[in-house]
């Protein structure tokens, strides 16, 4: 029998952690708008890339009548595994409005921020941010949601047992590593940047319901990478996007363009009219952004994969998620992809760096390795170039951004999960009005055009890198990061 290819032999020695399945549960005419978004981890500060990519693995392992014209969420940071990690934005809540920094997450469904009464919330952030605690009594427009109100009943599929008047509607989110957030729902004013002209905005307002975090557990209570909360961009009725749409404040359409060249990028709510993107249907009745993958080719060679690899259902299928950094493939797919990718480089020596498969290569990876193309329903292709499935780690060292899903979780072994690394430098449009998602290769340092459906006017939304000049306070004792868990989809 022939010896295994070098990448596989090296892989056998990787000590990949077996991650527990995560349970993420809640025990809970348009204008356009903008939110200011930046990356969570600092880009290349101190040169301690080993600590960054170690945290990256942990990041992915625990996850998880009128119309609004448009909203703009200016991005900051750099979307590479050895750099910043996740995106977060600043929003304003309450009257008078106060600023909160919240992680942007397409894989979760509620907005929550830390409450002033929180017993285990971090009081400072190693990211150099000033944390703000929401005080229900300090906002003249805020009110506590009781368990007998419609939002609570809709969230839990009916009136809660034992519910009486004036009892708060509680929420609880648990992550597979033991991190958790619990609290109660609040209704209050949200302020965001509404697009009013080319590159121009003015404050827009809406009333939304969100979680007031009363207690944080696990790493959510750690101050090193602390934020004020998480902003879910999922499809559920509890998400901010769904609430804005239900109130006639927004269309359920948003887009992001994550820039790994200059940093930052574009994140906007609204009807994108330029550039045009081809789309593929979202799979119906799924809680996340599931799509139908049809085939994969590497350097023009179509992989011969069994049909069950592409089936969608419980604990299988393909998910698009900008809250995850890496891409996870079923073991059979992973091995075939790797074998073809390295077919012309059998002499490459691999080594383990923070549980990533890495190698030394002095030339251009784009010249030396093939493009991988994922083909989806309705003839939509996702081209992933070598610099997108490899990431540099200094001194001509490259690491593989694809991961073997079978080594992460038994329950997730059949899932294709596509994260930031393969979605970067592409405009990705989530059109929930028509239940499609699409993308195109794009210069994320440029701009897009969004239509104001109230006036019919088309406005330009520029890219942003709001992390430029922002001081990070970097700690080498990097703690594990919280993101949408890979296995919270199960």
Structural account:
Strands 1, 3, 12, 13, 14, 28, 29, 30 and 31 form a nine-stranded mixed sheet that branches. Strands 4-5-11-6-10-9 form a six-stranded mixed barrel. The protein is mainly beta and 490 residues long. The chain folds into two domains: 197 residues, Cathepsin D, subunit A, domain 1; 166 residues, Cathepsin D, subunit A, domain 1, CATH 2.40.70.10. The protein has eight helices and 31 strands. The radius of gyration is 22 Å and the shape is globular. Strand 9 and strand 10 form a beta hairpin. The relative contact order is 0.23. The C terminus is likely disordered. It comes from Zea mays (Maize). Belongs to the peptidase A1 family. It holds the Pfam family TAXi_N.
How would you summarize what this structure contains?
The chain is mainly beta and 490 residues long. Helices cover 11% and strands 34% of the residues.
């Amino acid at each position: 029998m022939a010896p295994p290819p070098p990448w596989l032999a090296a892989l056998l020695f990787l000590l990949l952690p077996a991650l527990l399945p995560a349970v993420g549960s809640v025990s809970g005419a348009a204008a356009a708008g903008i939110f200011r978004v930046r990356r969570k981890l600092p880009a290349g500060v101190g040169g301690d890339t080993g600590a960054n990519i170690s945290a990256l693995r942990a990041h992915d392992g625990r996850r998880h009548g009128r119309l609004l014209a448009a909203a703009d969420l200016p991005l900051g940071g750099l979307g590479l595994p050895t750099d910043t990690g996740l995106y977060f934005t600043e929003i304003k809540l309450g009257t008078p409005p106060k600023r909160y920094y919240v992680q942007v997450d397409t894989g979760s469904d509620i907005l929550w921020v830390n409450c002033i009464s929180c017993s285990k919330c971090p009081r400072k952030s190693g990211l150099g941010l000033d944390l703000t605690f929401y005080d229900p009594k300090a906002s003249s427009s805020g009110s506590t949601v009781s368990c007998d109100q419609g939002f609570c009943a809709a969230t839990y599929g009916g009136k809660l047992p034992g519910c009486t008047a004036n009892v708060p509607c509680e929420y609880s989110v648990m992550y597979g590593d033991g991190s958790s957030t619990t609290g109660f729902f609040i209704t209050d004013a949200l302020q965001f940047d509404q697009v009013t002209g080319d590159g121009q905005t003015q404050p827009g307002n809406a009333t939304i319901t969100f979680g007031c975090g009363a207690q944080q557990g696990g790493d959510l209570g750690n101050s090193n990478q602390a934020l004020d909360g998480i902003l879910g961009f999922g499809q559920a009725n509890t998400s901010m996007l769904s609430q804005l749409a239900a109130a006639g404040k927004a269309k359920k359409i948003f887009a992001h363009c994550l820039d790994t060249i200059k940093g930052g990028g574009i994140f906007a709510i609204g009807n994108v009219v330029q550039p045009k993107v081809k789309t593929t249907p979202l799979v119906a009745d799924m809680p996340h952004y599931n799509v139908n993958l049809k085939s994969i080719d590497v350097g023009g060679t179509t992989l011969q994969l069994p049909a069950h690899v592409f089936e969608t259902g419980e604990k299988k299928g393909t998910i698009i998620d900008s809250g995850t950094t890496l891409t996870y493939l079923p073991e059979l797919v992973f091995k075939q992809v790797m074998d073809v990718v390295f077919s012309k480089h059998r002499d490459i020596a691999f080594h383990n760096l923070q549980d990533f498969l890495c190698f030394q290569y002095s030339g251009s990876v784009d010249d030396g390795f093939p493009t991988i193309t994922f083909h989806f329903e309705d003839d939509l292709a996702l081209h992933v170039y070598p610099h997108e499935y490899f990431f540099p780690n200094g001194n001509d060292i490259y690491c593989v951004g694809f991961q073997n899903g079978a080594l992460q979780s038994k329950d997730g072994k059949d899932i294709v999960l596509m994260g930031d690394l393969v979605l970067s430098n592409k405009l990705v449009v989530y059109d929930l009005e028509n239940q499609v998602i699409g993308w195109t290769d794009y210069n994320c340092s440029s701009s897009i055009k969004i239509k104001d459906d109230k006036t019919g006017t088309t406005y330009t939304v520029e890219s942003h890198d709001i992390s430029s000049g922002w001081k990070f306070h970097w700690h080498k004792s990097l703690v594990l990061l919280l993101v949408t868990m890979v296995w919270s989809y199960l």
